[in-house]
């Protein structure tokens, strides 16, 4: 019985060496310096309306925190850098005129644009991934 137990133990230890279970992969040695550099994108919100229009504007900032501006004169523009690899852009406005427009641009390229014509116009633009 002792000989069988010793032979079995020897066989198991040899099989562990053959299949590599003694060498566990390490994921902690990944170097951060090997990552590719990231150029931040510029996100621009624009709200437009007839001259003299005043609007209440809400938007998500660079940190995806909601912001609100009361009594903004139109046209209104906000530009900021996005340091994350992906971001959501959202801007909404309600004005005291019958016409409003909104646009969201990424690096100067229009990604979404809307115009409304209604009493006390309300508008929203959403960009799911910048």
Chain-wise SSE layout:
Blueprint: H1 2-19, E1 41-48, E2 54-60, E3 66-73, E4 76-82, E5 89-95, E6 99-106, E7 109-117, E8 122-127
Polypeptide structure, described:
This protein is mostly beta strands. The protein has one helix spanning 2-19; strands at 41-48, 54-60, 66-73, 76-82, 89-95, 99-106, 109-117, 122-127. The strands form 2 sheets. It has a 4-stranded antiparallel β-sheet with strand order 4-1-6-7, with no helix packed on it. It has a 4-stranded antiparallel β-sheet with strand order 3-2-5-8, with no helix packed on it. The longest helix is centred in the first third of the chain and has 18 residues, at 2-19. The radius of gyration is 29 Å and the shape is rod-shaped. The termini are far apart.
Average pLDDT for all residues: 84
DSSP summary, beta strand count: 8
Structural class: mainly beta
Rg, alpha carbons = 29 Å
Fraction in beta strands? over 45%
Summarize the structure.
It contains one helix and eight strands, in the order αββββββββ.
Q: What tags apply to this protein structure?
A:
mainly beta; four-stranded antiparallel beta sheet; 46% strand; 8 strands; 1 helix; 130 residues
């Amino acid at each position: 019985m002792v000989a069988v137990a010793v032979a079995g133990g020897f066989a198991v230890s040899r099989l562990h060496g053959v299949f590599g279970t003694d060498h566990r992969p390490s994921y902690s040695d990944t170097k951060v310096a090997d990552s590719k550099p990231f150029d931040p994108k510029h996100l621009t919100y624009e709200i437009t309306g007839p001259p003299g229009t005043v609007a209440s504007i809400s938007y998500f900032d660079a940190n995806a925190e909601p912001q609100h501006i009361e009594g903004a004169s139109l046209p209104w523009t906000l530009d900021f850098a996005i340091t994350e690899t992906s971001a959501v852009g959202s801007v909404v406005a309600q004005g005291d005129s019958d016409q409003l427009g909104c646009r969201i641009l990424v690096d100067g390229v229009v990604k979404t644009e809307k115009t409304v014509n209604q009493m006390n116009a309300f508008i929203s633009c959403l960009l799911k991934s910048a």
